[in-house]
């Protein structure tokens, strides 16, 4: 009877106070109000320690399933006290949308009916390329989307993702990835928006706003990851504060992100997940983050097992929660042992309660504790409607970078016979980056996926769709991606050779490549389209390649194609820049397609035939050598020996003229904004879109700032012959730097540069910030320019 009374009291408290929440825009709103704090404390007073610990751990659906179905007996055994999160709940399943929704409803019903607390779980999933579940739209990989320089399309894509996730009952995403990527050797570069903090911040803010919407009760909570400086050296305080922290800071202050994930890496030799300097001092005290900190999968126990910085799992859990990690994902290993850590004096119950409170507040914000909670959307569900496919197509079209063109593109009407050759000529495995549903189920679960659900358009299919019957397309792979595996598994974290299993999936049903046939059809063609590069097993988390040349024998294959004397159009697929320096001068055209998603084939084909004028520009520097040195355009390129194509570079089928730069020469350092205006004209014969870039360079030779920094950009659509005026409204605060442990805007002279890339500067002007240096006591608040085109 007492147990029942306790349950009834818990339910009543949930229903009474969580319905008092005022629906708020997520932008810059506090995570925890005073009223909510009091009510959460009342709820927690009814909870046992086991019930509290359940709310700050995650688990997998597989642990409560038998023969593909939810087992109530397993639920009672595995999650008797409830659970905080179900982790990557859909990416390992082969279920139709309605089946997925019904599964979520079944699990939530158990939690709300059979557990003492009656608290539902958060179902979370990956979302950088869309909802990672069968049948959902697969957008281009983030590295390609970064080359679109289009925050608006990022926002629209994320919003469509949120709608599908909510329809299935999911409320939380482990996206976006906001790390800066400065070497093509990093296997996770594909998940990033590139090397620049400003561009990454703009894209990340757009993603979060699109995913979360104006109210987390209808949107999906975004998680900014990986905090901070993952994939690069992060021990330089100036670099860390000015650049690696900026996308996260913008995500919290502008977009209202209330969840963050620390990286697997270290800061000052201490694991980030156990690092109070990074998670408490920087994140909470300095930046002012007031939300939820979720661990990366296995990162808490890694403090003990991998970093060897704890004596056991209980100590690792204590170190993490003391540093500021609120929830352990993806399996409850260390946090369930926190009572032992309390006995050993390693952690206090008060610290645990703070984490539990944040977990419950997040559930409240998401509407999971509302009375009459509705889980998912009733009726038939479509995760890939025509509107989504159109978004995927537009995104791919704007992500594909034209790196070289000697005039062969767009293909003209004289072309009657095309040789489409190379390992990526007619496969869908080159369309898909890591953390797509297709990649996750095939790599992590060694299970094949259905290329028709959603429909994946290969390059061959795209060309057939666009060229019609008047052009003959002859197809032959010519070579494999790589005869040896060419990449190796990280067995320390993954434990088996699932790469070989994935490789077998990618070649299943394909004939052996025929080099001689490829050369023969190439010699008989008007033009050669060589589709080369990477696929699912050659790039992604846990997959390390030996270098960044074209994999396997593909370099030699391309050279044989060039030797035919026919024009070679190189189409590069993959999750990173791959070297073309060996034959760049001999190719007629080079197209960087990245992993372009479900509509990739149609998008590439439309660019090749001229239905679409390419507009994308590189969000990373394109290397010329296999040097592992990090490249950051902000440091300058020196003699350029390491650089093939600069940051911001990308060709078009038309030409643009910049003119009439107008800037005030003297600016009060305390002014809110000042304007930089110019005219941009399309002086070619084809409609197009130019990405206009605004850079700043300090003039003072003693300056400690980077020699060139992106401070603004805008996509400007221009019909042939059309001219528009673009105005950047810049804040002096955007010139801030981290110096002597302070945020300071220094007076003095600065050069503003407007160009088509970081090295193709078309217009320049000098301003002087007048007045006393400004110290920003509370850090940065203004991050972006405000732009206007007319």
Automatic annotation (TrEMBL):
Keywords tagged on the record: Carbohydrate metabolism, Glycosidase, Hydrolase
SMART domains the record matches: Fn3_like (SM01217)
Fibronectin type III-like domain sequence ranges: 690-758
GO biological process, one term: carbohydrate metabolic process
GO molecular function: beta-glucosidase activity
Transmembrane segments: none
Matching Pfam families: Fn3-like, Glyco_hydro_3, Glyco_hydro_3_C
Keyword flag Cell division: no
PROSITE patterns attached to this UniProt entry: GLYCOSYL_HYDROL_F3
Record bears the keyword Hydrolase: yes
Family of the protein in this entry: Belongs to the glycosyl hydrolase 3 family.
Record-given protein name: Beta-glucosidase
